[in-house]
TrEMBL record:
CDD domains: ABC_PhnC_transporter. The keyword Lipid biosynthesis does not apply. One of its GO terms (molecular function) is ATP hydrolysis activity. It comes from Natrarchaeobius chitinivorans. This is Phosphonate ABC transporter ATP-binding protein.
Length: 267
């Protein structure tokens, strides 16, 4: 279970991205975070695995307090936290197989990681997952040769091979067309259910959130203004979250855009 209590994030500019956010994600639960651009959704996702350092508050994954871990301890804890990035987070020059296997780096010694000396069991598992995400046969293709939907599937496969307890998913459909977005969401949820993984997903398409999530949190100006089941997100709740903005036109690619760059070493 993920438990977030009193989470705050204030940048050096004085801007408050998060203002005391508290909620829980139960085991095997699919939770969506929605809200207008600049609400703090991406910051929240990135604080959970400390790609961004919280200013105040605590984050627990089961009995581990993530917010108090040293760098070495955090490296081990991140094995349990899979991340699917908005901009895919792939290394373009590497093959599909190499990108997926990078999800196992946290389990390897520094020397084996440097040499990319992956165990046969990891390679077998990577092929299995690539087949599950309909990417069998692409193992030797470079990441920069793939379409957006294919890149997102590889990103999901890389996160799943970690064997995480929870998947953090940051705007997985923002760069995809509607049909591909639906397919990626279906794939993501199917895998999470098959692997018994909890999911915390930041998503701007409200109709996808209500279709695929068990529970929804509405964020505005760094605060939770709605919490409830997907079926409880009525027009009144949407108005409280978006205050007159059209949620179906909300494209959140600018939300915390300065934080979107990723490094394969952080995965």
């Amino acid at each position: 279970m993920l438990k977030i209590d009193g989470l705050k994030k204030t940048y050096s500019t004085g801007d408050e991205a998060l203002k005391g956010v508290s909620f829980e994600v139960d085991s095997s639960e699919i939770v969506a975070i929605i809200g207008p651009s600049g609400a703090g959704k991406s910051t929240l996702i990135r604080c959970v695995n400390r790609l961004e350092e919280p200013t105040e508050g605590t984050i627990f994954l089961d009995d581990v307090e993530v917010t108090s871990l040293s760098k070495k301890e955090l490296r081990n804890a991140r094995r349990d936290i899979g991340m699917v990035f908005q901009e895919f987070g792939l290394v373009d020059r590497l093959t599909v197989m190499e990108n997926v296997l990078s999800g196992r780096l946290g389990y390897m010694s520094s020397l084996n990681a440097f040499r990319r000396n992956y165990p046969e069991e990891d390679i077998r598992r990577a092929r299995e997952i690539l087949s599950t995400v309909d990417m069998a046969g692409y193992e030797d293709d470079r990441a920069d040769e793939l379409s957006g939907g294919q890149r997102q599937r590889v990103g999901i496969a890389r996160a799943v091979i970690q064997n995480p307890k929870i998947l953090l998913v940051d705007e997985p459909t923002s760069a995809l067309d509607p049909e591909t977005s639906r397919k990626v969401m279906e794939l993501l949820i199917d895998i999470a259910q098959e692997e018994d993984i909890s999911v915390l997903i930041n998503i701007h398409e409200v109709h996808l959130a209500t279709r695929f999530a068990d529970k929804i949190f509405g964020l505005r100006d760094g605060e939770v203004v709605f919490e409830g089941l997907a079926a409880e997100l009525d027009e009144s709740a949407k108005d409280k979250i978006y205050r007159g903005e059209d949620p179906e036109q909300e494209v959140d690619v600018s939300d915390d855009s300065e934080l979107q760059s990723t490094d394969i070493k952080e995965i």
